[in-house]
Amino acid sequence: MSSAVSGSSSSSSPGLGQGIDVTAFVTAALAGDQANINQIQSQKTAVDNQNKALAQITTELQALQSAAFTLNDPLGSLSAQSAASSNSSVLGATASSTAVSATHSIIVNSLATTSSYYTAPVATSSTTLAAGSFTVKVGAASPTTFTIDSTNNSLDKLAASINNFAAGVRASVINDANGSRLALVSNTTGVPGDINVSSNTSGLNFTKAVTGSNASLVVDGIPISSTSNIVTSAINGVTLNLVSPSPSSAVNVTVTPDTSKATDSISQFVSAYNTAIKDINNQFQVNADGTIGGPVHDDASVRHAQGTLVGVVPFSLAGHNSIVKLASLVINLNNDGTLSIDHSKVSSILASNYSDVQNFLQSASTGFAQSLNTALSSLVSSGTGALSLDAQGLSSTSQSLNQTISDLQDAFNTKQANLNLVYSQVNATLQELPLLQAQLSQQLASA
């Protein structure tokens, strides 16, 4: 206790009259309690680091599972089709996954037109117009009558009032060297959008500029009429974008599997696999100083995940010609557990063996993608996967340790307050002893 006593050492009772260092005495008395709290806090930090590392690995495995879903999607990228036109200045084409690989011969006789009207010019767009009315009818829709009065008796105001109605036309004012004219353009292409202006008692003289007509084309010898220049129903899964008529020459539209999208999806799978396996492998890497690399190096579920990933790579599926395993796609397992891929060779294999690749990856319940998804589900499925259960256990342990720390800290604080009181009283007593000693000496001397 002498190390926490202040005062002259020449006193017969060291520290008498000088008191003690209360803080030092309390700290020393609580050292064991603080060490216990620190130890449990260290345990909680380790558990939290494990949980964080486990969450990161789980996220990476979920990304890999998403890549597996993409490979297995019957309407996804491996089923994507592309359409190529032999003359894009006449028509363009796109294809969805429902399209069938084939070549189609198409003749574009004429394009669909958009009906329009215009009026004879007046001086300016703000020139006052005479009162009157006119009727606009679009296709088979009910006619709409527009009345010119003091509220809309200029081209600017009239165009605005027409656009406030759902009449099936768009009105605008055209200005040129001759003056200003009202233009009406149908909102619908083809015959259904053909405009007719009648019952005109206004001072405006209307002229029909374009009659609404349907596009005319021949698809594989079958005549087609389309109200739009975007034709979606002529070929299943194929959209034709008519650009210009060419009645004397046919355009070929070739529908083939979209190997670029398929290659991208396979590459994304390899990338997601490598990200996950690298992170898992790093947990077990031995550093130069002999320490283990990651927080979950002794976690059995992570070791199980490592074995699961490596175990799915040799998967094979017999009876699908030359594409029976990942190596058939030039996807090989490296010594460190990662995968390597030759993108150019994958593209070449897809170009020549597309259906075999698709069968290997997507065969119902037995394809590689489904096998991978099943393996990953055993790891990351919420509530049942090995890593999911592990994470729940770690979270529970962290919460328990946190409660223990809170309880110990409360007890520590109470004990600290009591010790502060006790040692403060001791300190006060020691500081009063010289005075008491002097009083006693006086009493003895006078006796």
Written overview of the protein:
The structure is a single chain. The protein is an alpha+beta fold. It is built from eight helices and 17 strands. β7 and β8 form a beta hairpin. α2 packs antiparallel against α8 and α4 crosses α6. The radius of gyration is 43 Å and the shape is flat. The two termini are 37 Å apart. 26% of the residues are buried.
**SSE order:** HHEEEEEEHEEEEEEEEEHHEEHHH
- Number of continuous helical runs: 8
- Major β-sheet profile: 5 strands, antiparallel
The percentage helix is 40-55%
Terminal-residue CA separation = 37 Å
Number of beta strands? 17
Structural class: alpha+beta
Radius of gyration: 43 Å
Question: What is the approximate shape?
Answer: flat
Unreliably modeled segments: 1-15
Strand order of the largest sheet: 1-15-3-11-12
- The share of residues in extended strands comes to 15-25%
Q: Which whole number gives the mean pLDDT?
A: 89
